[in-house]
Amino acid sequence: xxxxxxxxxxxxxxxxxxxxAMTGLIQEYMFKDKLRNCEPIDLSHFAVDLRERDTWSFxxxxxxxxxxxxxxxxxxxxxxxxxxxxxxxxxxLPTALPSNVPRPPTRRHCSVARFRLRVHTLCFExxxxxxTSFPTCDLCEADDMSRMNSMLFPTAQTSI
Amino acid sequence: xxxxxxxxxxxxxxxxxxxxxxNVLTNRSHAHxxxxxxxxxxxxxYASQIWSILFFKQGKEMDNPVQMWLTVxxxxxxxxxxxxxxxxxxxxxxxPLQVNWFRATMRFYNSLTQCNSTTAKQVLHADMAxxxxx
Lengths: 160, 134
Hints:
By secondary structure, chain A is mainly α. Helices cover 41% and strands 2% of the residues of chain A. At the A-B interface, α1, α2, α4, α5 and α6 of A face α2, α5, α6 and α7 of B.
């Protein structure tokens, strides 16, 4: 009788949820066997398998299909203000840039994210923590303070 | 129990936001995200070894009670709420919370298998026997 009761609750037990969640892992059968035998699992292999499962491999093709960052379609905040264009990267045309200006990055989704999160290494940013770095713009001859805007849109000479 | 974790996560988020405002870090989005990762996400893992097992399956990465995490990331990136969650996570860097919960649960399982307590081991064996009988 006790066995019947336990069996009827099997779908909700802790172990059954974990074992069913192993589906999709590369070493799924090995992990399931170890769980059923109550043996410890090597976490280093498990963590790698878990990352390889469709979690990230699904997200990446989504970005690739879009060809550019989805968040790049939204306005950037440059120098503390919203840039008026919704798609700022569309303004940067490689053919329109002079030879001495760096090309727009090919990995746009990474680059835009770095600007959005301010993890870029432009001189006006590094000057805040590196005393040997100068915050002046190194793209033009004027001694103006280098700004995110002038780096993103060097030909436009826009000011916000 | 997931609601309790969500409450802790919300509280952690607000404390981080307050800290960011007080220390003039509002224009340092990456620092904001790192603070959330070190303060708010551990709070959301409260007892996750038990309640999060419902969200381990493939395809449930974004279907969990701590969806607020994505909303916070979208606010930091200043993008619309209907932006694809995968893209937002890709660009901000953090993994889906499911990865953290699953790893924590397996660590908990490993500690159960290797602990000195016979009672804990018996509970684990009984639970596994229940699964096998099912």
